[in-house]
Predict the structure.
Amino acid sequence: MSGHNGKVGRAHRIPLPTLAVATFVLVTLALALVFFVAPNDADQGFRQRIFYFHVSIAFTSYLCFGAGAWKALRHLWKRDPHADLESYVAVHQGVIFGALVLLTGTIWAKTSWGHWWVWSEDQLVLFLVLFLFYAAYFMLRYSVDPGPQRANMSAVYALFGVVLVPVSFMAIRLSQRLIHPQVFTRHGANFGGWILVTYLVAQAAVLVLAYTLYRVELTGKLIDARLRELRLA
Amino acid sequence: MTSAETYVTAAYCVIFGMVLLYVVLIALKLQRLQREVEKLAPKDEDG
């Protein structure tokens, strides 16, 4: 909502244009590394190149849900006036990136396993459950009139959902089937050299992209809220 | 183009398409907000 001095939202250290340029540079660099530098995987060949953005987007999605829960906690605990909208925008980003994980995952599954979806695979099903749980967040939020009740209910829901994140992340390690590749173990990443460099650049690119989109959407939401206040004034 | 290349291209097109769609939707929303600000601005000057 509006600040006391009429400004919209809180001050951010990094200006949006700088973030947009950083996103463009990092995404371009990541794509160049993915398609022109990273070697073909010994086992999966060319199709392994989906991995760089698929895994990066999955971790970013988890992070967005985590950020949404953190902001929800701040709303409930500190009554931070911006926290409800920040939590909402973070969850929204998480759902968008979650949809991308599912879409790129099914394409990778089709080319690797010959099936678009494998219901017996815990990692896939648990991620779908996580995605659907957070998709339902919007149904709950918009079924309640704007105000403190909506903010409180949304915050509690976002906090409950975050429990599913470690479950989804650990499912691949707990599963006995191991169809889904396990790229990170207790000993670190299961790859090195240019594959690791490319993955790290892609991960940075997707994180900066998500943060930029978060800031753009949040700015829009805050202006919208401020306009509503002005119309009522 | 091999089958693997087709699928990899499809995956990256899905990512690009979805991010583009999101940016277009946000841009449309910001345009709407700008129009609303312009509508409110004369009221503010009169008031």
Q: What stands out?
A: Strands of chain A lie at 184-185, 188-189. Residues 19 and 34 of chain A are 22 Å apart (CA to CA). The first strand of chain A starts at residue 184 and ends at 185.
